[in-house]
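Render this sequence as a predicted structure.
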Amino acid sequence: MSIYAKKLQKMLQHEPFHQLLPVTEYLKEDKVFILEEPAIAAMIICQPTAGCSDEIRNSFNTIYKSEFPEGATLQAQLVCTPDIEDFLFGYRAVRGNRMKNSDQEQCEALSKTIHDFFRSGTAEPINNSGFKFKNFEFWFTIKYPIKEAVPTNKEIDELNEMVNQTVSRLSIFSPIIASDRDYYRRMRVLFNMYDEDGWRTKPQHVEKEFRTQPLAQLLLAPGKRVEVQRDGVSFHDHNDEEVMFVKPMSIMEMPENMFYGQMLNLIGDWQQGADGLFEPFILTLNIVMPNQNKAKSSFFKKRTFITNQAQGPLLKFVDKLGFQKEDYDAIDRELTQDNAKLIKYSMQMTLFSKTRKQALKFAERVTGFYSRLNVRVLPDNHFALPFFLGALPFGLHKLFIQYSQRFQDGTSTLATFLTPHMASWKGNTAYSTFMMASRLGQVVNLDFFNTSTNYNIYCAATSGAGKSFFTGYLVNNMLGAGIYKHPNPDVAKHMTASPDDGSQVFIVDVGRSYEGLAAQYENAKFLVFGRDFKYSMNPFPNVVDMFGQDGEANMIRTILKAMACPSGIVTDFQNAELLSILQEVWTDKGNQATITDVANICLNHADEEMVRFGKQLKPFTDGGVYGQFFSNKYPPVDYDSRLIVCELEELKSDPHLQVVVLMSLVVSIQKQMYLSGTDKRKMLIVDEGWQYLKDEGSEAAILKFFAEFLETGWRRFRKVNAAGALVTQSVMDAYESSAGRAIIANSAWLLLMRQNDEAIDKLEAEKAYAGSPSDFSLLRSLKTVKPKPGVSDEAYSEVFVRFEGQKQVCRLYTDRKLQLILTTQPDEKAIRQRYMDTGLTMIEAINKMYEDEVASQTRRRAS
C-alpha cells in the first residue's frame, strides 16, 4: 500500500454509529432478526391500551411465566414519538375535491390549516405549556441466544413458537410482528426525530426497504454523526449542528405498594391534565430470564441467610436487614403461591430532545414529576451511550446486563405490574374526519360513521364550555371530508378524481350561533323561520314512504297530534283513527295533501272526538293563524345545499308553533337525506336541544310529542347514511327526560364537555349514567381554556368521549386563525364583521384580525 493510501486510510478510519447496533440481517420468511451477540430476535409492534383489565393482566402473567431458554431477554417498551404521518395520510385521503366552486377552496384552506397545525405541533410546542402532539406505540421484543452466528432451524422454530404464542396473548393490542421495513421506519424516527424531511415526508405504510446496504447502516441519516457526552448522546447534522440530544435515565425505585395500572401515571397527568411529559421518550422494562433451577437455588440460599441475620442482634444496628427480609418473603410468596418465575429486571427512561439544554430541562421535569409519584429516577451520566443502546429494541447485551449495575431480582408477577403498556386511545379510524388529542398528547382520530351500531351523537356542554365552537369545528370537518379514499393523496395523478362527496349538514338552532359559519360557504343557506317566512312547512310533500315497512305515517301522525293537542291529551280512539284518516288522505291526494284536507275529514267524521280534533287543527289550516306556514301557497324549502342552517329564534315566543315547525323540518330534511342517496354522509344537528327535552313545565305536554317524533327519526338515520346530533347544555337535560334517555340509548357517541358540579353530583347520585368512580372524576375535571391573545396562547376545550366501551378525555386544539373563524365571542364577531363590511372576504378578515393581534403582542413586548 502506498504512503498516500495509508494516510488516506488513517484519515477515513472511524467507528461508525451503525457498528454499535446489534442487527446484522433479517430473515423475511421467518420474520426473525439475526443479531451480533449471537442471538435471534423478534419485535412485536402493538397499540397501547387506554387502561387495564384482568384479561390484560392475565395475558402478561401467562407470557412471563412461559418457559424461556437461559439468557433470553424481553423488552416491554412504551414509545412516544412525533410520527403521526399515518394519521395525516388518512386525513388527506378523505379530503380533496369534496365540494365545488369557491367552497372547495374554503374546505381545502381549513383542512390544510388543521393538517399543518397537527404536523407542526409534533416538532414544536403548540402553546406556552409545551404541549406537543405525538403517537404512542407498545413494543415487545423477544431475544433468544444461539450457539453459532447462523441460527439453526430448531432455534428459529423455538423462537417463532414463543412469538406466535405471545402475539395470540396480546391480541387486544392489535399486534403485528415487525418486518425489517417496520424496524427501519421506527429506528429512522428515533435517530432522526427532529428532521424536517426523511421520514416526515411519507407515512409508515409506504416506507420502502433498501437492501443494497446492511440494515444497520441505513438508520442514521447520511451526513450525521453521533457524539458521546458526559450526560447524554448528541446527534449532529452535516453542518455539525446539534439536531438531537438523547438523555438516558434509570428508574431506581417504584412506590412500595403498587396496584396494577399504576404505570399509566408515569406517562402524564391523565386524570387532571395539569402536567405532562410532552417530549418524546421510551419507557422500558428490561427482563432477563435466568435458569430457573439455578436462580431459585441461589434465591433460597440468600433468603435463608437474610432470615437468620434478621433474627439476631445485628437487626438492631442494621435496619436494612429487616427491609431485605420483607422483600425476600414477598418474592417467596409469589414463587410458592402464584407459581411465579424468577427474573432479573431493570427500568429505563430515555428522553429525546432537540438540544442538550432542552434535554436537561426535560430530565428535570421528569425527575420532579416522578418524585411526586414516589418514583426515583437517576440520570445515567458517564455511561450514557451503553444505556441508550440498551434501551433500543434488541439492545440488551449480556455485557450491558453484567456491568450496568441496574438489574434487580424480581418475579414474573412483578413484571406484569411494571409493564408500560398503557397510554391513550387513538380513536376509531385510520381515515380521520375529526382530529383531537388526549391529555397525554396522543392524536385521536374519529369518524362518527365508523361504528357497528348507529352514527348518532349526544353532546352536552354548559354555557361557556365551547359547544358552539366545537360544533362549528365538527361541521367544517364534515363538509370537507368524504367517503371516497384517494389511494395516494400526495401524488397529483391520484387526485384527479372529483368525488364531490363532502357531507351535507343541517343545523337547527336558536340564537344565530351559526350565521357566521353559513356565511363562509357559497353553497350554504341560512334560513330564518319567522312570520315573514315564504316557504311551506306542509309535511305531506316531503313524505317518501307513508305506510311501508319504514313508513313515515307515525311521524306525520305525531305532527298532527302536536298541532291539535298542545296539552298532550289525545285519546286512544283519536290516536288510532288518525291513521285511518291519514290513509284516506294519502290515497286521495298523496304528496299534494295538506293539513286542511286532514281537518276537513275530521270535521265531517261521525264521531264527535274526531270532529273536536278537526276543530283543534283549524289554526294550521287555510285561513288559520298558522295556515300560511302549512299550505301549498308557498314552495317547499329547497335543501339542495351542502350546509343548511335553520334558525328558529324568531319563533321562540310561540313554543307551540316552534315545535311544530321543527318537527316538519325534520321530515323535510329526512326526505332530502333519502333522495340524496348514500354516496354522501348527512348529519342533522339540533343545537340548544335542552328546550325540546322538558318533562315538566307549561311546554312539557307538547314536547312529549316531539320526543316521540325525534326518537323515531333517530332510529331511521342510519338507513340513509345519516347521523343525528343533539346538543344540550346540561347532561341532566337528557337523563331527566324520557326523550333524552331514548336519544342517548340510540346514540353511539356520548360527548360531554364541561358541566356544573351540581349536574355531575346529581348524575352520580341518581345513577343515571352507569359510570365508574373514575368516569365521574374525569367529568369533574373537564376544562375549557379560552383564548387570551397577548396573555397566553393556550386554549382548548375538553370533551369526555364515550364510544363502544372506550372512555377518554380528549382536547380540541386549533390554531388561532381557525379560532377566529369559528368564534362565538361577541367582540371578535363584531371586529370580523367590520372588516367584512369593508369588502373583505371571511378569510381576508380573519387574516387581518390575526395580523392585528400579532402586532399588538409585539408592541406589548416592546413596551
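Summary. The longest strand covers residues 242-253. Residues 23 and 35 are 5 Å apart (CA to CA).
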